[in-house]
Design a protein that fits this description.
Elements: H1 3-14, E1 37-42, H2 49-58, E2 62-67, H3 73-80, E3 94-97, E4 100-103, H4 105-115, H5 123-148, H6 151-176, H7 189-204, H8 213-224, H9 226-233
Parallel strand pairs: 1-2
Antiparallel strand pairs: 1-3, 3-4
Helix pairs in contact: 2-4, 2-7, 2-9, 5-6, 5-7
The protein binds glutathione.
């Protein structure tokens, strides 16, 4: 972990579970845990990539339960009927942490952000992060929707959808400016989402970030974080595919 990025989070956790602004943090550290948490998702990047990156970034002791999309899909849906992970809304990705049972990738990301002080701590930060989260999420949805929609829609509308994402990236680039992360010195879950969104679009359209030098620097900075670098260089990192079997881009 890059020391400057995580210093405020770690300091808050060491203070006994409260950030300076009074936000309650979880006290449990990896060494105090009896059971690792469990994260489950298909053997693709998809909606699982951002939570996986965040779990790796913070160094959580977690089990990465990978569900084989090629040979294990049928078995997964058969087992799902019994709801083995006791989820209120069974789906992938899921995340179990002690008694906590979560699905919905954004709920997982926001939970982890609260747990590791990677979310907002003031009203102003909340306003900024809510807005940034919405913009970044739009670019992620554009990507997944066009990839998983009809072949005709992909052919007809891909250029326009990519153009719309590029327009948002330009605005995000201006917003970021010379700052390290979107909120300044402190990395948040939205930086992780933004990295995920950009890496997906860049795999398809490498020119999409042309002129967005601030965002390109953010991506490099993220990849250079020691835990992320280690993860990406490890055999555990899923570099490909991004999408599911029915996608028009990046399954095979
Ligand atoms: N809005 C949900 C979407 C989840 C979703 O669509 N999951 C797909 C893969 S990306 C799936 O195959 N879920 C397995 C299931 O339906 O049980 C999220 O963000 O987590």
């Amino acid at each position: 972990m890059e020391p400057t990025a995580l210093r405020p989070h770690l300091a808050a956790i060491r203070r006994g579970g409260r950030s300076r602004s009074g936000l309650v943090l979880f006290r449990r550290s990896v060494s105090q845990r009896s059971m690792p948490s469990q994260f489950g998702y298909w053997t693709i990047r998809g909606w699982g990539q951002a939570p996986r990156l965040l779990l790796e970034l913070v160094g959580e002791d977690y089990v990465d339960d990978r569900v084989d999309l090629v040979n294990g899909e049928e078995k997964y849906f058969e087992e799902k009927k019994k709801n083995p992970h006791e989820l209120p809304f069974p789906n992938l990705p899921y995340y179990n942490d002690g008694d906590i049972r979560l699905t919905q990738s954004m709920a997982i990301l926001r939970y982890l952000a609260r747990k590791y002080n990677m979310g907002a701590t003031t009203e102003e930060e909340t306003r900024q992060l809510d807005m940034l989260e919405g913009v970044v999420q739009d670019t992620r949805l554009y990507f997944f929707d066009i990839c998983h929609g009809t072949a005709e829609n992909y052919k007809l509308n891909l250029a326009a959808v990519a153009e719309r994402s590029a327009m948002f990236y330009k605005l995000l680039d201006d917003y970021l400016g010379p700052r390290r992360w979107f909120l300044g010195e402190r990395i948040t879950y939205v930086d992780v989402m933004a990295y995920d969104s950009m890496s997906n679009w860049l795999a398809m359209k490498p020119e999409l970030l042309n002129g967005c030098e601030n965002l390109k620097r953010l991506m490099k900075r993220f990849e250079a974080l020691p835990n992320i670098k280690k993860y990406m260089e490890s055999g555990r990192f899923i570099a490909w595919p991004i999408n599911g079997k029915d996608a028009h881009f990046s399954f095979k």
